[in-house]
Write a structure and sequence with these properties.
Length: about 475
């Protein structure tokens, strides 16, 4: 699975039809990345349908709708979502340039304030003054060592000269692990009703151990095409701005992995799952007794697909990170500042590394599922930083292109636990394949940590 850039723009694979004319304004081809990554996931679906003996379905991607899905797909009607950002999260001048503090999670906020020697109630002005007294790389290292999240702004050349940047650049877009043979399953393997041409992932159980955009985007895509997704979060995880985005199509439960009983249940769920999608850093699963070797021994038929922020090799492989931090580290924010003539870091117009990696993760999962049906278990890993390598091969957006737009009439009414709203229509059409789910967005922790019953007829799981 590869992405292709020619003359500064992403090229969609042969056989994919593209409609729409909009482009997000950026120093890079962000809309092209959206189209290419969504097309990759859709093509993987088409190939899965073809495996069942049907003709290869046609794939069509709309540029305007794809651009919109890289932002927020859900718009409340008569109520408002909270801000996705903590009041201290942002970019600050420091010795040597700029640094970004990511403080959305309470423990990340506390780590940054502790390093800066500030009280919990400190405001922006106090944080800015404290940051200004630090040299950027020293503050970055101190916050990370305190288990917080920060990123110094680097140029592209500085990143490529950095051991982590050089390591990520040498990685493949999808890092496939060692494969193993298991008994083949023909055209169906899932624990429930068999898949159909219209619902190619029906009956497939996906355990979702991801958070914050990229992983949830991947499992949302899988759910929309029939997969049964069970998401597990810790008891204290809160993300109110994104719950309507990231819980669509999923049964969402809570477990405390810090207790013996809380860790036993995920292991039981793994024994009943077909696919594990996780966002743990390379050392984190091993710390829970679920190293790659241990999972292969305990669950030989389980397909595992993982992602992280900074790649799977190099000195930062275990570093916590988010889209906005990777943009600072790898040169994207600095390139945007130069391109637009700004005096501060200028990120992408959307969190494109998250969203693109999510769709590429879904594509890799579906490709690996096809192999699993034939008796081959082939784990895969992706990272935000490696996706950034692909994006930075492209050039600026077309200045003459219109701003992407979606007609209000095309939006789909949707009820959620918080109130009504409108959801974007699918950005991609795969002929003969239905994109739908009967599990509305309900937020985190609403379901018990068990696999729900699967309808005898997969069509029963699709709204009429």
């Amino acid at each position: 699975m590869e992405l292709t850039v020619a003359s500064g723009a992403f090229i969609v694979p042969d056989g994919v039809r593209v409609t729409g004319a909009g482009s997000l304004e950026s120093a890079f081809d962000v809309t092209g990345l959206a189209v290419a990554s969504i097309a990759a996931a859709a093509q993987a679906l088409a190939e899965l349908v073809h495996l069942r003996g049907a003709p290869l379905p046609a794939v069509t991607v709309d540029r305007d709708v794809a651009s919109a899905w890289f932002g927020m797909s859900f718009t409340p009607d008569g109520w408002q979502l909270p801000s996705p950002w903590d009041d201290l999260a942002g970019d600050y001048p420091c010795g040597g340039g700029w640094i970004r503090l990511h403080t959305n999670a309470p423990h990340h906020r506390a780590a940054a304030l502790n390093v800066l020697g500030l009280a919990p109630e400190s405001g922006l002005a106090q944080v800015a003054a404290a940051v200004a007294a630090w040299e950027g790389e020293a503050l970055e290292a101190a916050v990370v060592d305190a288990k917080g999240c920060a990123a110094m702004m680097r140029s592209r050349s500085q990143w490529l000269a950095h051991p982590q940047g050089a390591g990520v650049a040498a990685e493949p877009l999808v890092r496939w692990g060692s494969s193993r043979r298991v008994p083949p399953a023909g055209k169906h393997l899932g624990k429930g009703a068999p898949a159909t041409h219209a619902r190619p992932l029906a009956g497939v159980r996906v355990l979702d151990l991801t958070r914050v955009i990229a992983g949830p985007v991947a499992t949302r895509f899988l759910a929309q095409y029939g997969a049964q997704v069970l998401r597990i979060d810790p008891p204290d995880w809160r993300e109110p701005a994104l719950e309507a985005e990231m819980t669509l199509g999923k049964n969402c439960a809570r477990l405390d992995a810090k207790t013996a009983s809380g860790m036993d249940r995920p292991k039981e769920l793994l024994g009943e799952a077909d696919i594990l999608v996780h966002g743990y850093r390379p050392d984190a699963l091993a710390g829970l007794g679920l190293s790659d070797e241990e999972m292969a021994r305990q669950y030989p038929g389980l397909l595992t697909v993982g992602l992280d922020a900074y790649g799977w090799s190099g000195p930062w492989a275990a570093r916590r990170g988010f889209d906005s931090l990777v943009q600072m580290s790898c040169g994207i924010a600095e390139a945007g500042m130069a391109h637009f003539g700004k005096d501060r870091p200028t990120p992408l117009p959307v969190q494109a590394l998250d969203h693109s990696t999510g769709y590429l993760l879904a594509a890799a999962t579906i490709h690996a599922w096809r192999e699993r049906l034939a008796g081959q278990v082939h784990p895969a890993r992706l990272s935000l930083a490696r996706t950034a390598v692909e994006l930075m091969k492209s050039g600026p957006s077309n200045p003459d292109a219109p701003v992407p737009s979606v007609e209000p009439a095309a939006m789909l009414p949707e009820e959620t636990r918080w109130g009504p709203g409108l959801r974007l229509p699918p950005a991609v059409q795969v002929s003969g394949v239905v994109a739908a789910t009967d599990v509305e967005a309900r937020g985190y922790g609403w379901a018990p940590p068990v696999w729900p019953a699967i309808p005898a007829n997969p069509a029963d799981a699709v709204p009429a």
